[in-house]
Amino acid sequence: MSCSLASSAPSCEADTEKEEDNSAAGKNLYNLISTMKMLGVFVLCVCAMMDLTPAADLPEAKDENDQTASSPLVKRTVFRSRYRNRYFYYIHTPLTWAEAERNCQSMGGNLASVHDTHEYHGIQRVIMAASHDYKETWIGGSNGQEDRFWLWSDGTLFHYTNWCPGKPVYSQGQQHCVLMNHSAQKCWGNLQCHYRRPSVCAKKVY
């Protein structure tokens, strides 16, 4: 803006100062908008990096989180632990005993058989580590619709038992299957196999 010769000097100086103030304010606004745009891009980049970062594995000594593909029945987002010569997989999804056995077979194993007290406690630790509780869980024993004659689904001998007091109970002509962590004693119970519970699979280490 130019001042006329008739204008007084103080008036010209005031107009010049206003123009300088407006110019400075405009520059500040432009810088603020540019900074906000850059901040928005930075936030988007950080969010994208977080989406691409894999989740941390479960903190444990010998155990590890199984990251295999999903089975036909349930997603195998399961907890895996090695004990002796077998891997044990805790399946959170409640299934019938037959569904649980088929799911274990799809993973190359069977519902877990138990052969001594140490092994039983080892499987209990797998369940506790995965679920933070001693949940009632299917294992591989069933009576095959014949009372008092129990079998493991993996074909091993049924020579060890850990029945709770008063168990097993029988109802003639109905198949019953074995649950671990039953009752307050966390021992074995038996239940009709169509009920849904979490399960433990076992797979041999070769």
Automatic annotation (TrEMBL):
Composition-biased stretches, type Polar residues, lie in: 1-10
Any one Pfam family match given in the protein's UniProt record, by short name: Lectin_C
Domain called C-type lectin: residue spans: 83-202
- SMART domains named among the record's database cross-references: CLECT
Q: State if Disulfide bond is listed as a keyword.
A: yes
Origin: domain of life: Eukaryota
Keywords assigned by UniProt, alphabetized:
Disulfide bond
Q: Where is this region: Disordered?
A: 1-20
**PANTHER family from the UniProt entry:** MANNOSE, PHOSPHOLIPASE, LECTIN RECEPTOR RELATED (PTHR22803)
Name of this chain's protein: C-type lectin domain-containing protein
